[in-house]
Fold each of these.
Amino acid sequence: MKLAEEAEECFRKVISLQKDLKDDTWLPPYATYELGILHSTEGRNEKAIVSLENAKYVKSHLSSAVHHIRPMSHDLRHSAD
């Protein structure tokens, strides 16, 4: 399995555990953000936009990351045109 595919699988696993986490509730939002970045680096801009937009709305432990997510999703949306 390629490294990017392994990373994507891990991020998706963390995201899927969101409802079960009691302590480390910050992990799924960051995994969602990182999944968006991975999609972006792989040239999958539409998927990147979806992940980054989802990261903005996930239970907010993302206060510092949101400052990076908004410009990134905006830039990707305009490059997809």
Note: The helical segments are 3-16, 27-41, 45-57, 63-79.
Amino acid sequence: MSKNEGDDALDANRILAFMYDPFLNAIAERFPGCSLADMACNNGYFPLGASLRGMGPCTGIDRVNYVESIALLNGVIGTRIEFIVSIR
């Protein structure tokens, strides 16, 4: 990955965080310890964020297979997100 691609990825993540983190904070505050399922989750931003905020089991579902990406994140940051590839 080039420096420009890395910078673009960081910028994209900052935009996601700005848009979605207040919403995730409110969900985790209102439903502490509850589970979260996100359909059409793409690469799992919501399940990851919910897990990091102490919510219970978090599951992402998408048609695109992000199993390896989610497994990498689980290993690196210690989350236990389940990812399900939906059947077309």
Note: The radius of gyration is 13 Å.
